[in-house]
Structure formats: C-alpha cells, structure tokens
Amino acid sequence: MSSKTLFAIGALAALLFVSSVFADDVVVLTEDNFEKEVGQDRPALVEFYAPWCGHCKKLAPEYEKLGASFKKAKSVLIAKVDCDEHKSVCGKFGVSGYPTIQWFPKGSLEPKKYEGARTSEALVEYVNKEAGTNVKIAAIPSSVVVLTQDNFDDVVLDKTKDVLVEFYAPWCGHCKSLAPTYEKVAAAFKFDGDVVIANVDADKYKDIAEKYGVSGYPTLKFFPRGNKDGEEYGGGRDLEDFVNFINEKCGTSRDAKGQLTSKAGIVAHLDELVKEFVKAGSEEKKAIVSKIEEEVGKLEGSAARYGKIYVNAAKKSLAKGGDYAKNEIQRLERILEKSVNPTKADEFTLKKNVLYTFSSSS
Predict the structure, then answer these.
(1) d(C-alpha 86, C-alpha 35), whole Å
(2) Total structural domains in the chain?
(3) DSSP 3-state assignment of 113?
(4) Residue 258 lies in a domain
(5) Potential cystine with 67: which of 26, 75, 200, 343 (Cβ 3.0-4.6 Å)?
(6) β-pairing verdict for 112-113 and 231-232
(7) To the nearest whole number, what is the mean pLDDT of the chain?
(8) Catalytic residue among 83, 90, 175, 250
(9) Which of 56, 83, 90, 250 is catalytic?
(10) In percent, how much of the chain has pLDDT > 70?
(11) 336: closest CA among 8, 6, 20?
C-alpha cells in the first residue's frame, strides 16, 4: 500500500473520528438530510440561523444547553440549519429573519413558529409541553478558566503557561455574542496543559482591569510564557481566528474541533534524519538511531515529548523491519475508527503522524 493511500485512509479515519466523537448535541441539518430527520417518527425543534447574525450568536449557548438537555431523549430531535448554506430549505419553510425557531410535530413537515423567550429554560419548557417529555436542563461544564482577585496572578503570570484572557462585563452585548465562540476555543485546547483560555469579570474586578489598561469590553490580552506584561489580541473573533492565533503563538496544532492536525508531533529536523534512516542499510540505521536519540536529548517541552515518539518508532522499525510503520499506522487507524477518549486519541494521532514520516520517506 502506497504512502498516499495510507494518508487518504488516515484522513478518512480522522474525519470519522471527529464526526462521531465530537458531534454537537444539536443535530446539523442540510438540504440532503432535512426530510430524512424532520417529519419522521419523532417531533423536532429546528433553529434556522445565519452565521453572521448577532441574535443567533446570543441564542447559541442557550440552544446548545437545550440540545445537551435532550441528548438522551431519543423521542425528540433538537436541530439547526445554516440558512446561508442551505437557502432552499429555509425558503421552503418561509424563513425570512434569523433566528427563526419552528416546531415540527411527529410525521409532519408543517411547522408552527416558536414565539417564546430565547432562553434554555423557556425552550426546554416548550419542548416538554409539546412532546410530553419531562426533561431537565443539563449543566454544561465550561472549559474556560474563571479568574478572580484570588487566582489571577497564579494563573496568568505562570511562566510555564501561555494564557489568553478575556476581560468582559456581564451587561456587555458584544461579550455575550463572543461567549459561545470563546467557549469553543477553550474546549479545543483543553487537553493542551500549557495553554490556558480564561476570562475575568472586569466590571467586578475593576482594579485588575485598570492594571492592564482595559477600558472597553470585551478586551482580549495574551500572556505568553515570555511576556507576562500581556499583549493586546487584535485578531478576528471567529473560532478559526482564535485557533490559528493559539497554534501560531503556542506551537500547538489543533483544528476548530480540538482535533490534532497532521502537523502535530512533527519535528522538522528529525524528519531529515528519518529520511536518512529509511534509505540506510542495517548497520547505518543503528548509527542514525543514535543520532536521533542525541538530537532528541537537546529538545525541550512538547518537542522533547514528540522526539521520544521518533526514537521509539526508529527502534521498532529497526527491530521489526520496513513494514513496521505501515502496519502500525493501519492498526492505529482501526483504533481511531472506534470511540476513543480524547487523551488516547491525541496519543495515537501523534504516533500516527510521526509514523507517516517513516512511511512516506520510503
């Protein structure tokens, strides 16, 4: 099997893993699946939204709570459809403003519009009444570290951490709009121990805000390991903007779903040694393994951890032969196709990425 084929298999497995393990509690509807999901053997509440819509952004965390609450209630579908992407669906149901929320009874594609409050409590109450369920609101754990007067310095000034801080005010509309995106940023990097996504109520802790020159909300400041005075974050406020910023500044390699990318774990100058290793004869390989170990000994932080994966892969390739990398990649792909806890998924993905360098160099 060629390295290109292996890469394609890897990409497919990663996609399947993302969709199965990190799927939202709210079902995403499209032109292709709308009538397969709605109007079937269970009622559905559907939000018709647009990504640029401010009111939709404010609704998002409340609607996500609704989805989480009904996650185990298989008798009701909580769903959403992007009207920018799927205009024909939204047009079919008379949607002209965003967000529009409609209730579809079981077996029917004739909805009635939801006119209630846009809070998780009101939405849950409405669905319970319409569907005859008795679901309680689920508490969604936050990955954002909450800062106070007591812990601000301990968290933010920790020289071993890269920290992004949002200074917000509870009454601030722009802060409320940012909240669901900021939560997703925190969730994406929650398994990177050296990265902290935090916020502080600057209205409550005015002295902290004043110390760091905060006068408007939300203000975002980045406190990298090398500069605890703080740097103003001036990037965009979409999820991808934040993810790209963190990856660039912190040396991480994650996508918007929190999955490691194909670049994760790769150490460029070790890849050059891998190319030599793959082409070398048996005795030369032993010498190159020693070179790899020597170079890894010079590395620090996460690079040192990745380096150990290179050493292990080189030693096993030497002991088990040229097919080791290909066979091990296939084994890891089979594991990742199943439901794997995120920490293990990271571990297997890092190993797989490094093994690809041994496979593609051959």
Answers:
(1) 13
(2) 3
(3) strand
(4) no
(5) 26
(6) unpaired
(7) 89
(8) 175
(9) 56
(10) 92
(11) 20
**Do 240 and 292 fall into the same domain?**
no
- d(Cα 33, Cα 31) in Å, to the nearest integer? 6
Alpha-carbon span 246 to 233, nearest angstrom: 11
Question: Residue range 268-282: average pLDDT?
Answer: 91
Q: Assess whether 150 and 192 both reside in one domain.
A: yes
127 lies in the same domain as 37 = yes
Mean pLDDT of 320-337: 90
Domain edge (last residue) among 104, 131, 158: 131
Examine the residue annotation and report whether 250 is marked as an active-site residue of this protein: no
At 13, list the tokens. 């497995």
Burial class (CB in 10 A: 0-12, 13-18, 19+), 337: middle
> For residues 223 and 208, what is the distance between their CA atoms, to the nearest angstrom?
14
Rg for the chain (alpha carbons), in Å?
Answer: 24
Does 158 reside within a domain?
yes
Neighbours of 197 (CB within 10 A): 25
Query: 4: buried, middle or exposed (CB in 10 Å: 19+, 13-18, 0-12)?
Result: exposed
| Side chain identity at residue 287, one-letter code | A
How far is C-alpha 356 from the geometric centre of its chain's CA atoms?
23
φ, ψ of residue 223 in degrees (nearest 5):
-115, 85
Contact 197, 244 (CB under 8 A): no
Do 126 and 116 touch, CB atoms closer than 8 A? yes
**Per-residue model confidence (pLDDT) at position 361:** 61
Asked if 172 and 222 sit in the same domain, the reply is yes
Q: 45 forms bridges with which residues in the sheet? A: 78, 103
pTM: 0.64
Tell me if residue 56 is catalytic: yes
Is residue 354 within 8 A of residue 309, CB to CB? The reply is yes
pLDDT per position as a tens digit, 119-172: 999 999 999 999 999 999 877 778 999 999 999 999 999 999 999 999 999 999
Q: Any idea what the Cα angle at residue 244 is, between residues 242 and 248, rounded to 5°?
A: 115
Domain that holds residue 201: 145-250
For residues 350 and 339, what is the distance between their CA atoms, to the nearest angstrom? 17
Q: Which two tokens stand for residue 194?
A: 């050296």
Using the predicted structure, report yes or no on whether residue 5 has a pLDDT greater than 60: no
